[in-house]
Amino acid sequence: MSGLIEGIRKNKFVVFGRAGMDMFAGPVGTKSEDAEMFHADLGGSSANICAGLCKLGSSSALVTSVSDDAVGRFCINRLQKYGVKTEYVRSVGGEFRTSLAVYESVLEDFQNVIYRNEAADFQVTDADVDQVNYGSFSALITAGTVFAAEPSRGSTFRSFENARKAGIPIIFDIDYRPYSWPSAQIAADVLTRAGEQSDMIVGNDEEFGFMAGGIEKGMDMARDLATQPGRIVIYKMGHEGAVTFADGEEIRTGIYPVTAVKPNGAGDSFMAGLLASIAQGHELREAILRGSACASIVVSKPGCAPSMPDLYTLEAFLASQPSPTTT
Q1: 99 burial class (0-12, 13-18, 19+ CB within 10 angstroms)?
Q2: Going by C-beta distance under 8 Å and a sequence separation of 6 or more, which residues neighbour residue 56?
Q3: Spatial contact of 258 and 300, defined as CB atoms under 8 Å apart
Q4: Domain assignment of residue 326, yes or no
Q5: Residue 46 to residues 24, 134, 195, 276, 320, Cα–Cα distance (Å)
Q6: What angle, 0 to 180 degrees and rounded to 10, lies between the N-to-C axes of helices 45-55 and 70-81?
Q7: 257, 98 contact by CB (below 8 A)
């Protein structure tokens, strides 16, 4: 685990995965079909992680493709606004399009309508990942959606090889999105392969259960993956908190209850908060709790990237909270 933690603490992350445009209905409580106004901002799991890291004082660069149009340029501009390095973001022409998510700040019957036809981010190639200067980063992060189609599947596995050669650890957010995959079996096989090649694996009970072939088998799979020396596996269980497997230990942590206005964005914010907190010198248990606090903050506000906390917001939230709970 020392190599993984050492890499995270150097605090320079290269992140693979999609950037997209989010359009969320306003004001809070308005259903998308009833909205007269939508707010636009950055979206996409990996882009959100990048923005969250930068807002907490870390350095991040995104490796992806966006469409060569106004929406793609919007995403690049928003990435730069949040401080994310974009030299490895490539614009692609033709009919490829940047993802669009239309959602609302509503918990009951929450709707997230995602447009992913001919997704531009799946067009990341071997040439794109080979141009990354891996030696200038201290850890690689990827979200699982990059593995759903070629050429990005093969190119991201190639980036794993490049990271290994450069001696930097690999951090994998399972991030299973069924609509992106040709079949459940392919998804389970490919995501398992990615997990087996990673130094840190983060997922929820449904994701581990999916990969294991049944929700009841998920925790055993997480525990088995953690038998690899130096690997950390974080098994998230929603309101029941999380179990982290590391160096033979099982660390159980709770959550910070809030009044949520939406369910999405929590996982991205958790990842950013966890890694930034490790980088700032917090012990693993405390870093997991700080990641959980970031997740709670995000679901209590509209939008994803714009609701990611900065360090001041995170510290103020923690100071105002009682002990975390698992109920």
Answers
A1: buried
A2: 272, 273, 276, 277, 294, 309, 310, 311, 314
A3: yes
A4: no
A5: 18, 17, 17, 15, 29
A6: 30
A7: no
Structure tokens at 77: 């501009």
- 276 belongs to a structural domain: yes
How do 232-236 and 200-204 pair as beta strands? Answer: parallel
Number of domains in the chain: 1
- Name the one residue in this structure whose structure tokens are 């699982």: 144
> Which among 71, 8, 7 is positioned nearest to 44, based on CA atoms?
71
Closest-CA residue to 239 (of 299, 166, 161, 195): 299
Give every residue of the chain whose pLDDT is below 70, as ranges: 1, 327
Q: Quick one: tokens of 62?
A: 């995104």
For 116, the token pair is 């992913």
Distance CA 100, CA 207 (A): 23
The CATH number assigned to the domain holding 194 equals 3.40.1190.20
Tell whether 98 is covered by a domain: yes
Task: Evaluate whether 325 touches 257 at the Cβ level (below 8 Å).
Answer: yes
Q: pLDDT tens, 178-206?
A: 999 999 999 999 999 999 999 999 999 99
Residue 1: the pLDDT is: 61
Q: Looking at the domain assignment, is residue 325 inside a domain?
A: no
**290 three-state secondary structure:** helix
Report the alpha-carbon distance of residue 266 to residue 136 in Å, rounded.
29
CA separation for the pair 134, 148 (Å, rounded): 23
**Phi and psi based region of residue 71 (left: phi greater than 0; alpha: psi -120 to 50; beta: remaining):** alpha
Range of the domain at 216: 2-320
